[in-house]
Amino acid sequence: MFFRNLTLFRFSPAVADDLNRLDEVLAEHRLRPCGPMEMSTRGFVPPVGRGEEAALTHAVNACTWLTVGGEDKLLPAAVINDELQRKVQKIAEEEGRKVGGRERKRIKEDLLNELLPRAFVRNSRLSAYVDKKHGWLVIDTASRKSAENALSQVREALGSFPAVPLAPEEGPRVLMTDWLANGTLPAGLALGDEVELRDPGSATGAIAKCRRQDLDSEEIKEHLRNGKQVFQLGLVFDDRMSFVLGEDLVVRKLKFLDVVLDEMGDSHQDAAAEADASFALLTLEIERLLAKLEEWFGLPRPADA
User: What is this structure's pTM?
Assistant: First the structure.
């Protein structure tokens, strides 16, 4: 259950107190199956276990894990257009007339109504957790749209959840460029093997993407001398995790290294105990990273109104 990406939001201590209602309110917003004429549904599903009896939250210390589930009908546009063309051609051949735009629209709507109940359904799951002690909402996605959708689900369930995007006091792009150009990384942080460099002042938007690359190489230095800045940077934190940090402060490609995985072990007696151990380890490691991101970039926690 280790998260692979981290999109982050912050909330105040007063908001944290309101999160004690999560167990109660999520039950009213459980994921339900798509109806015959629905394209999609969203709701909460158990983070651990399955079935109606499974809890919709899983808490360890001050962190509460929740999962937004989704069902989406798969009805490709190409399928609809092919069927529409077949019907239009049949009308032309049998009735000897052209089908106008208004009639094509009506036929297409009829096709949707006919095909939708028979469409395949794709299930999705998006994990997140709230750290009530430190005021973080952590969502396992690199997509801003998916993160906002998950946040909206929590807001709908609670009635209000004023979590806000990060507002760094230090410019991430400038700071990461300095790290790479001058080797001034904070203690405990080391360069990885991936970087995306862009020329922010270029009309052509010149981009250099390097993977499995020595970031101290002359090639990288030449890009920096030519005015490119860091938009994504591969990093290793305390030899315990590797990731790619974006100028939007989204953590991508998060990977826990062997030293962390060895600490978890494999002696758990059941799935619940394993989930507890994994989630506790996950949140502890991420808590350490977020504390450093807060320090390096200046990420203040919102104050109570």
Answer: 0.88
